[in-house]
Amino acid sequence: MGGEEERLRRWRLALGGAAAEGAMEGGLETVLEGADARMDAALSALYDEHERRGAGLGASAPRVARWLGDIREHFPAGVVQVMQKDAIERLDLTRLLLEPEMLEAVEPDVHLVGTLLSLNRLMPERARESARAVVRTVVRELEARLTRRTLAAVSGALDRTARTHRPRRAAEVDWDRTIRANLGNYLPERGTVVPSRLVGYARGQRGVRRDVVLAVDQSGSMAASVVYAGVFAAVLASMRALRTSLVAFDTAVVDLTDQLRDPVEVLFGTQLGGGTDVNRAVAYCQSLVTRPADTILLLVSDLFEGGPREEMLRRIAAMTAAGVQVIVLLALSDDGAPQYDHENAAALAALGVPAFACTPDAFPELMAAAIERRSYDQCRMTRPGR
């Protein structure tokens, strides 16, 4: 295919049918055939306004299933996921996702899981197992991507916080801290530091060393955050050195801690949508705190408070004054800058409580920093990366 012909082909696919017709009057004219024509038809069914007023995808499950098959054939997985998300939102296909044949045709991803969870209470029994299979596939992919790094980061942080001045083996000596602690013993003539005091890691400590409470907002805008938080909570719950609790809330509060052995059950225990009462959730989390100085509260919420705002702020201020480390995640997802209540975020910042978005890939580092009570780069936490 010549350079000019290829350029016209690309413009035709980019502009779509209606826009291309107008451009043809200015000399842009090309005919799509074969795979290009099928690709153009799949794009037009979703994005072409004329097509949507006419045939489009319609409300037919078989037609939508064929369309899903077409886009999986002609586009890479990442593009397929974006087109599926757009189709659900633009063409209102949520009802069709209750059909088992539809669930077998879709490309599983985090946003699809969020949509299925929002439909959980409406889902007929015949579609429920298909939905569980989709959720299970996504959860396994997330676990494969995130578990090892989370366990390594958190375990390392726990080891570093357990200091001893009587390390038994050389491998247990924290040489960086030992050298800094003994700089006054530097011998210039020998060019060395004489360590009169060793600082080491107290490895092998038994028992629970940190309490972690994840409180997750179930409002519809937080769907992806709910999915990631459920997976991370299950990973953290597998660590004996942590006592992990998971609380999901809207205007009510549900404790999902006893389901953390299976993140799929955790996710199906949530109920996306509805209002938000952050204060009620914070009050419940406050009742879980028995060791304030060793407790980390991660509040995953966009902070659009439907409950008593001042009471919520007073509760969080009381918890931080008692020694609880409170961190607000405005989003836990790869979706970019979230919508959130700026006034509440600023009020929390004035209390010394950080509020920022965090990508899933940055979450292990955030947990490690929280355990060690050290600072972290909030800007880097929001930067997508794999």
Provide the descriptors you would attach to this structure in a database record.
single chain; 386 residues; alpha/beta; Rossmann fold; 3 domains; 6-stranded mixed beta sheet; two-stranded antiparallel ribbon; 16 helices; 10 strands; 12% strand
Shape: globular
Mean pLDDT: 82
- Side-by-side strand order of the widest sheet: 7-6-5-8-9-10
Determine the number of helices (DSSP H or I, runs of at least 4 residues): 16
Give the H and E element order: HHHHHHHHEHEEEEHEEHHEHEHEHH
CATH topology of the largest domain: Rossmann fold
Major sheet characteristics: 6 strands, mixed
Distance between the termini: 36 Å
Q: What percent of the residues sit in helical stretches (DSSP H or I)?
A: 40-55%
CATH superfamily of the largest domain: von Willebrand factor, type A domain
Q: Based on helices, strands and strand pairing, what is the structural class? A: alpha/beta
Write down the CATH class of the largest domain: Alpha Beta
What's the number of structural domains? Answer: 3
Label the CATH architecture of the largest domain.
3-Layer(aba) Sandwich
Which regions are unreliable across 5 or more consecutive residues at pLDDT < 50? 22-27, 50-56
Percent of sequence in beta strands: 5-15%
Organism: Microbispora cellulosiformans
Protein name: VWA domain-containing protein
Pfam families: VWA_CoxE
Could you give the topology of this structure?
Layout: H1 3-24, H2 34-47, H3 49-53, H4 61-74, H5 77-90, H6 100-105, H7 110-118, H8 125-161, E1 163-164, H9 175-181, E2 186-187, E3 192-193, E4 200-201, E5 210-217, H10 223-237, E6 242-249, E7 253-255, H11 263-268, H12 278-288, E8 295-300, H13 309-322, E9 325-332, H14 342-350, E10 355-358, H15 363-372, H16 378-381
Parallel strand pairs: 5-6, 5-8, 8-9, 9-10
Antiparallel strand pairs: 1-4, 2-3, 6-7
